[in-house]
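REQUEST FORM: STRUCTURE PREDICTION
Request ID: SP-0412
Submitted by: Lab K.M.
Chain count: 1
Length (residues): 129
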Amino acid sequence: MPRYSLKNDGSACRFIDEEAVLLNACTSAYYSMNPTGTFILRELLVAGREPGEIARDLQERFADSTQDWDGDVGHAIAQLESEGLIVEVGDGNAALTIDGGDDVGLPNVYVKPTLERHGELEQLILSGE
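STATUS: Completed
RESULT:
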């Protein structure tokens, strides 16, 4: 089964207050994920878990048989991959140590996982915000 890691190009991730903050080192774009996306990302990268296991955890926690749990997890992974933030590393344990990762748990309320692009870090720094 597939395992995932941060893209090995200097990209970075931190978990802060139930939110993941990510930086694509090649484009300098920065992103955030909502609590559900943050949980999925944490389980992929820090726990080294497979997508199907994560989907089952969500289904057990929220007990909604109408939700497409595998589809939601797959969509979150596809977003992260398409933005060049994570890569599939094949079989084996790809667990990483990421700041704040130990503080991330299942969200209290389920909302579809989202990855939001905020712009380029260089522009943020130059704007003085």
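NOTES: Helices lie at 35-45, 51-62, 69-82, 121-127.
Reviewed by: T.R.
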